[in-house]
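re the bet — no i am not wrong, look at it urself. input seq straight from the record:
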Amino acid sequence: MKKTIGILTIILITVGFAVWNFELFFSSQSNDLQSRNGEDRLLLSTETPSVVDEDEEGDLDEKVEHLYAGMNLTPDVIFGFSEINESENEGAALDLPRGSIFSVLDEQGEWSLIDKPAMGQAWVKSTDISEVPYAFNKKTMIEDADAVDVLVNKEYRLPHDYRPDDLVIPDIPFTISEQDERMFMREQAAHAIEELFADALGNGLSLFGVSGYRSYESQQRIFSNNVDIQGFSEANRTSAVPGESEHQTGLAMDVTNEVVRYSLTQDFANTEAGAWLGEHAHKYGFIIRYTEGEEQRTGYTFEPWHLRYVGVDTATLLYENGWILEDVVG
């Protein structure tokens, strides 16, 4: 009898222990499932904040670097660009991802229509971009882009869709062998540079065209790449923001020769060809657009290779007085 009771006791203890372990195991799995499900629900409901504190403090340069940093699109949102009224502005976006540069295409009241690579167009409050150095909504849009002496710089910018309708390829040697948009110039400038190159060769000096016309989109890629490598501030000294490039006018041509290994370098000014251009380019209607010592006014570093056609009268006036284009146009 005692033996039977002992066996039953052992069985009951064993069963009870098994039940306890089963409940403990189930409870553990259930809690783990609830935890994982809760985490899933949390992850599914987590959204990248679409509003950045507009009172965010910090140096403007740091904000600009944040705006242009890396030129890579991320889910982050840059400061501002959050108050957009979709009901009033068709195609508006609720936020603007951080990434590459943008430009203002149109302004209506307090709204600006911006265009951004990889994102498209969106309406934003003009005040949201008013504090950014070189903010594009501060620029004056050029009305007569076809004028031969048109002033294009960091204050006066070209429409994004401007393209001259008289582009031709001048009969000059180029550093590029296959036809490219960079070979084109406006017809009047093309004829003038043909004469200039011919006379230079007659004086024993060789010249090669490197880059003439560039579209807004091409300039956008160039500037974005420069920002990615150099940072915004330096890129804005050595290259132009799209819409602010003279190359889009079809009136500019970068030139070089074998002495500087066909590169675009300030050393070109010290070559015979570079010196000859400095003394004679105006006779053909060209100027060295970005002269030495005028960076604060032109906004760009010295570029002895950058020829800009403005017509013989204007070029001669500038040459004889030691002026730059900003002194007579604008």
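see?? DSSP finds eight helices and eleven strands in the chain. told u. also The longest strand covers residues 303-309. so pay up
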